[in-house]
Amino acid sequence: MPDRELPRKAAARTARLAALPLGYAGRTAIGLGKRLGGAPADTVLTEIQQRTAEQLFRTLGELKGGAMKFGQALSVLEAALPEEVAGPYRDQLTRLQDAAPPMPTQTVRDQIEVALGPDWRDQLDWLDGGPTAAASIGQVHRGRWHDGREVAVKVQYPGAGEALRSDLRTIARLGRTVAPLVPGVDLKPLIAEMQARAVDELDYELEAEAQRAFAAAFAGDPEIVVPDVVAVGGPVIITEWLESPASLASIIREGTQEERDHYGELLVRFLFAGPSRTGMLHADPHPGNFRVLPNPDGSPGRLGILDYGAVARLESEGLPEAMGRLIRIAADNDREGLEQGLREEGFIKDRTRIDPDLLLEYLSPFVEPTKVERFRFSREWMRSQFNRINNPKEPAYTVAMKLNLPPSYLLIHRTWLGGIGVLSQLEAEAPFNAILTEYLPGFAVA
Q1: CA–CA distances in Å: residue 387 to residues 144, 156, 208, 375, 382
Q2: pLDDT in tens, 163-189
Q3: Which structural domain, as residue segments, surrounds residue 25?
Q4: pTM value?
Q5: 292 found inside a domain
Q6: Rounded to a whole number, what is the distance in angstroms from the first to the last CA of the chain?
Q7: Count of domains in the chain?
């Protein structure tokens, strides 16, 4: 869809989203016919999944808005999907982490004029005609500020707000029929949380406020780079340019083990150090937001972090102390202490009864990486964890029905799960225990 604006008519967008499960059903019916005709079952299944993946993620990417944001959220969980499903989907998923079709150059200029006024060229000396990156609600152009600084100009698509909210409503209504396209993923809470955050992500003034705080907190950091904000107004935010050859998506595809381990560790450090320094959590850990900055000799270097539209402003000006304390209790296999602590924090209602062994098993994805000096994340490990807590046939599945996730933990939970998903895609080894000991309140042994 080159040189085309964001599709804005609600009816047209809804029709394209509604066609996704119909396409899947049609391919399944054709596949059944092929099987009856003697075609091998595994060949037919692979063909169905490949075509479904192509249609699903091509449609989500072309529509941008909430459709693409939904696809990007799924991409973070790719490591949890069964290999027979994830294989055909992987290439399509990772495409959504780095790029989307661009909008016309004139539309970009019109949006900049809305933000900076008719004399915007006096402030922005030069603007690249084509985008360097494009995502769900905006795209980025390289430019030069009047003081000589290279800058990144992020421009929101016209109609992005309407499209974002409309898409998420449509996907919510289609939840049951879309579910077979991504088996094993519980879409309802994912979509609900995205709907709750939609307004914040459209507000570039709010994003600029968060990015300035992170830039100040990480200024001079030897490992993490956060570009500062240069200007902001309405549908445009301008930040310092970050020169980087690739994102974490490229390391996932073709990185060396050294690169995977190095940048995986920096990702963990940033996600946990951010709240302690800023009182905010960067809550959009899909790989396209993390840029690799190799050293001059080509060895792994610093990690650059972009996009502060999805940020959790934490009530305690940092991650909750109870969170670290409960993870430590679980790591020590203190069943009674864990249940009591979860009840005190509102995770377990007064009259609810939960098997303590199943409770420990359910929390394993968050606790197991803390039990060793260095933990190796992998797709195989992620799939096994995901299957145990999401498969109705597994005993731990019943725990999910009984736990209550307090509102203050919703975005923290999704970000932590997303971070684990990215680490598993990287197949990275990281000193998870040491990082939590340094940055997570309540986790360190007294």
Answers
A1: 49, 38, 39, 20, 8
A2: 777 766 766 665 554 554 444 455 666
A3: 10-99+163-184
A4: 0.78
A5: no
A6: 57
A7: 3
